[in-house]
């Protein structure tokens, strides 16, 4: 007697913030019938880009005008505060300052530019923000006003744009809240499962996904959210090259010891088409961070640190915030943005082979995550009408413990883990959270 395989309605490949938000949205908002499943190659969720970012929910001003990225950033940001409150997650709604000191800082802005040129760039930031739908921005040309907002910045600051909508968040807790909510409501997560073979049975309309050690899963629809491996996975799913090529972009960071009250708002240079530039910002836990850089590299997996760049970051920090000269560096880390040859987010849905590929979520994926989940779910449900929903399903929501309690647990356990509702013991992968919770 042959045993019928257990066919999941949807199998998501990749346990970063993108895969996790889609898992949650399909389970809790769409209320798909049957358990949606997510597989993650590593032993811990958010081991790659989603565990090595800046942790700033940004307003999307640097995303191209009219892009899907900008639309999803805006949509997500307008729902983010409600989400954070719903799960008792910490945040600091401080806004940010795009500022100019008239000196070169790391990535090419400033040096040698006349005051007129700088003002034009800052005016362009204001205009771009308005076009992006963010009207709560202000051009500050009065040095005293800037210093009154941030008393510890280098007093040579000449002008700044105050973008009021940006929010400093805990970059690890947000994706974990998606994972927790999804599992609470029936989703399944399998870690340590690297999909090495995928094949589609066109007659039966079922995907077979196998790992190197012989485990096999079946699903009607596969969603690829594999970050820096997006083009390779697309190729495997479609049998043809992807319409984009992954180009990992490294960002290195330096973290200074905790110093309460030194800086409230992230300080950022004028963004370029290539990068938002090096930020100097305070985490929720009062570590001052300088970074990220934007360095293209071939390697998709390993983000190495180099002394010269870390020195440059330290100097950038000290220039913008002179009292950093007396502060100790406690940590450095680097992450790889899943950038591609394309500037915008890449959503490719294949109605013949029942898959959705989500790629090129390069430097705003945390901010845009609520929008990404909603967008992916609406693409899937509008095309795959065989996906059934359980309209009457009651969705439960369990809040997280207070962050003080989580950080105390983290310090006391000493194994790098905390207990997350419905997920059990979870390893904290993000250096910002690790450093903040360890009290350095
Ligand atoms: C330096 C830096 C700074 C950033 N700053 C910000 C910021 O301030 N604000 C913001 O909103 N965003 C920021 N981002 C962007 C954000 O972090 C990314 O957009 C987001 O993390 C991308 O998520 P992802 O799920 O696509 O990729 P990832 O987090 O990389 O997840 C992909 C997952 O897929 C898994 N995988 C790959 N292949 C397989 C396979 N075959 N089988 C199973 N699993 C597989 C990987 O192990 C990985 O865990 C930054 C990113 C970086 C690197």
From TrEMBL:
Source organism (scientific name): Triparma strigata
Domain of life assignment: Eukaryota
InterPro entries recorded: FAD-dep_OxRdtase, FAD/NAD-bd_sf, G3P_Oxidase/Oxidoreductase
Gene3D superfamilies xrefs: D-Amino Acid Oxidase, subunit A, domain 2, FAD/NAD(P)-binding domain
FAD dependent oxidoreductase domain residues: 10-379
Pfam families xrefs: DAO
Annotated protein name in UniProt: FAD dependent oxidoreductase domain-containing protein
């Amino acid at each position: 007697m042959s045993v019928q395989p257990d066919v999941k309605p949807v199998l998501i490949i990749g346990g970063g913030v993108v895969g996790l938000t889609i898992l949650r949205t399909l389970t809790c908002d769409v209320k798909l019938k049957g358990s949606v499943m997510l597989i993650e190659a590593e032993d811990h969720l958010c081991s790659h880009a989603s565990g090595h970012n800046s942790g700033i929910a940004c307003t999307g001003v640097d995303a191209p005008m009219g892009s899907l990225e900008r639309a999803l950033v805006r949509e997500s940001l307008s729902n983010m505060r409600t989400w954070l409150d719903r799960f008792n997650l910490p945040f600091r709604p401080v806004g940010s300052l795009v500022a100019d000191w008239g000196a070169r800082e790391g990535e090419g802005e400033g040096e040698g530019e006349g005051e007129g040129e700088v003002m034009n760039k800052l005016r362009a930031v204001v205009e771009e923000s308005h076009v992006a739908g963010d009207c709560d921005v202000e051009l500050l040309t009065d040095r005293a006003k800037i210093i009154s907002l941030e008393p510890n910045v280098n007093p040579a600051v000449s002008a700044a744009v105050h973008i009021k909508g940006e929010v400093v968040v805990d970059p690890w807790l947000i994706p974990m809240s998606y994972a927790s909510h999804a599992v609470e409501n029936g989703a399944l997560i399998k870690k340590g499962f690297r999909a090495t073979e995928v094949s589609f049975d066109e007659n039966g309309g079922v995907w077979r996904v196998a790992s190197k050690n012989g485990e096999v899963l079946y699903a009607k629809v596969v969603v690829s959210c594999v970050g820096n491996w997006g083009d390779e996975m697309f190729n495997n799913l479609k049998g043809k090259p992807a319409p984009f090529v992954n180009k990992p972009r490294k960002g290195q960071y330096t973290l200074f010891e905790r110093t309460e009250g030194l800086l409230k708002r992230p300080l950022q240079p004028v963004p370029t088409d290539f990068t938002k530039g090096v930020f100097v910002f305070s985490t929720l836990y009062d570590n001052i961070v300088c970074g990220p850089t934007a360095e293209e590299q071939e390697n998709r997996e390993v983000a190495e640190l180099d002394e010269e760049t870390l020195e440059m970051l330290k100097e950038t920090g000290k220039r913008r915030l002179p009292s950093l000269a007396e502060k100790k560096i406690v940590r450095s880390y680097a992450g790889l943005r899943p950038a591609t040859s394309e500037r915008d987010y890449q959503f490719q849905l294949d109605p013949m082979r029942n898959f959705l590929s989500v790629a090129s979520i390069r430097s705003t994926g945390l901010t845009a995550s609520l929008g990404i989940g909603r967008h992916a779910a609406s693409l899937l449900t509008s095309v795959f009408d065989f996906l059934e929903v359980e309209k009457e399903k009651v969705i439960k929501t369990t809040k997280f413990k207070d962050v003080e309690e989580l950080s105390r647990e983290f310090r006391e356990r000493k194994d790098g883990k905390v207990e997350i509702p419905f997920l059990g013991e979870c390893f904290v992968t993000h250096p910002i959270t690790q450093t903040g919770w360890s009290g350095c």
